[in-house]
Amino acid sequence: MANYAIVGINWGDEGKGRMVDLLTENCGVVVRYQGGGNAGHTIINEYGKFALHLLPSGIFRDGVVNILGNGVAVDPENLCAEIDAVAEKGVFVTPDKLKISDRASLLLPWHRELDGLEEARLADKQFGSTKQGIAPFYSDKYAKKTVLAGELLHPERLREHLSDLLEWKNLTLTRVYGAEGYTMEKLDAWLAGCCERIKPYICDTGLLLREKQADGVNILFEAQLGSLRDIDYGIHPYTTSSNTLAAYAPIGCGCPSLKVDEIIGVVKAYSTCVGEGPFTAEWFGEEAERLREAGGEYGAKTGRPRRVGPIDIVATRYGVEVQGATNIALTKLDVLSYMEKIPVCSHYKLGGETVDRFPFPALLDEAEPVIEYMDGWGEDISGVRRWEDLPEAARNYVLYIEEQIGCRIGYVSVGPERDSIIVR
Ligand code: GDP
Question: Where are the domains of the chain?
Fold first, then answer.
C-alpha cells in the first residue's frame, strides 16, 4: 500500500490531470486538497474530452471514491454545473463516488463578485485572476468568515450564521466598492438550489480516509496549479491563495496524520504560464505562436492563450525541491518534435552574475534567461511506447533535464490519450 501525490512543478497546466487519470487505476481514493474551480484539468478518455475544475480526476473510474477535502474552496454552484456537465456524457456522480469534507468552507455567492470588483479596481495592475472568487474566499476563510459544508446539515444554525456574514460582507460591498448588497432572499435561493443538491455528498472525510487506509487502499492526492503558484513558496504576489505543495495534502484532505509516500511531480517539456507575473524564459512573436499552436496552449478554464517558452531548468529545479518530488512525469514531449534545435533555459543572468538558484520573487523581474540548444529529433514520437524506441536526441533531452533537476524522470508522456505514455 502507498499514498501518492501528483503535483505541478511549475506554473500549472503541466498535464497533471492525465497523470491522475492514468494512476487512479491503482488507487481506490482520489483527493483534491486545495484550490477551487479556478484552474482546470483536461482529460481525454473513453467518455470523451473533459475540462474538470473542481471534481477530482478519479470520477471516471468505477469503484474510486473521490474526495473534496477541507482545504478546497467548495463552490456549490460550480460543482453542480460540473456534475451536470459530466452526466451529459454518461458519467454519473453518485454520493458513493464523491465525498465533500464537512470541514470544507463554502465559496459564497459574493466571493466571485468581490473578485471581479477588485480586479476592476486594480485596472492595469491586475493579477490576472480567473474571477472565480478564490482570493476573497481564502481571505475570508482565514478571517473565519465562511461557513463549513457540514453546516448545511444543520439549517437552523446555518441561517443565523449566514445572516451575520451577510451583514458584515454588505459593508464591504456597498461602502468599499459602491456595489449592491446581498439579501437573505438571494442566499435562501442559493441554499435551496445548489446547496441542497450537494448535501448528500457531505461527510467526515478524515474518518473515511482512516478506514480506507486501514483497509490497505492506495490514496492519490491531486493538486491544482504548480509550485510557483504556492501561496508561501511561489512567485508572490502572483500566486494562488492556497498551498499547491504536496506537504499540504495531509492537512487539506481531512486526515492530517496520513503520509505521502511518493510525490510525482509533473513537468511539461517546455514552459507555459497563464496570467500575470514574471516568466523569465518567455517567448514572444512568431516562435511563441508556433509553440502555442503545436501544444494547444489555451487555458482550460478561460480559453486565454498561455504564455510559452523553453523549459526553465532554474524554476523547475526549485519546483522539484519545494515539492520534495520523488519521481517526475515529463509531459508533451511530442509537441517539440517540430523543432530542429530544442532550446533550454539553463541559468538566469541576475545582477551581472550567472545563477542557477531560483531568485527571491522581488528580483525575478530583473532575471534574464541563458538559453542553450540541444539537438532536435525531427520525427513524430507520439506512437512510441518504449523508452528504447525514442530517438536518441529525445532520450538525451530527457536525460539532460533529469540530471539538471536532480530527480528521476519515471514517465514520459507523448500524447494526451491514456496510453500515450512511456514508463521508464
Ligand atoms: P493540468 O491542469 O496540469 O492537468 O494541465 P491541463 O489539463 O491544463 O493541460 C494539459 C493539456 O495537455 C491537456 O489538454 C492534455 O490533454 C494535454 N496533454 C497532456 N499530456 C500530453 C502529452 O504528452 N502530449 C500532448 N500532445 N498533449 C498532452
Answer: 3-104+202-264, 105-198, 267-423
- CATH topology of 3-104+202-264 equal to that of 267-423? no
Give the pLDDT confidence score for residue 215 in this predicted structure.
95
Q: Does residue 188 carry a catalytic annotation?
A: no
Cβ of 32 closer than 6 Å to ligand 1, yes or no, is: no
Ligand 1 and 331: CB distance under 6 A: yes
For ligand 1, is residue 14 a contact (CB within 6 Å)?
A: yes
Topology of domain 267-423 in CATH is: Adenylosuccinate Synthetase; Chain A, domain 3 (3.90.170)
Q: Is the CB of 17 under 6 A from ligand 1?
A: yes
What's the 194 CA to ligand 1 centre distance in angstroms?
Answer: 30
C-alpha cell of residue 152: 448545511
Residue found under cell 514572444: 284
Do 46 and 18 contact (CB within 8 A), yes or no?
A: no
Quick one: which atom of ligand 1 is closest to the CA of 57?
4
**Given this structure, which CATH class describes domain 3-104+202-264?**
alpha beta
Report CA-CA distances (Å) from 6 to 26, 108, 329: 13, 28, 9
Question: pLDDT (tens digit, 9 = 90+) per residue, 377-394?
Answer: 999 999 999 999 999 999
All three cell numbers of 358, joined, read: 531560483
Q: For this structure, is 419 an active site residue?
A: no
Instruction: Supply 277's cell numbers.
Output: 507575473
At 25 the pLDDT is: 84
Q: Identify the pLDDT of residue 210.
A: 96
pLDDT for position 17: 83
How big is the chain by its Cα radius of gyration, in Å?
22
Q: Which helix (H) or strand (E) holds 25?
A: none
Fold of 105-198: Adenylosuccinate Synthetase, subunit A; domain 2 (1.10.300)
Residues of the chain with pLDDT under 50: none
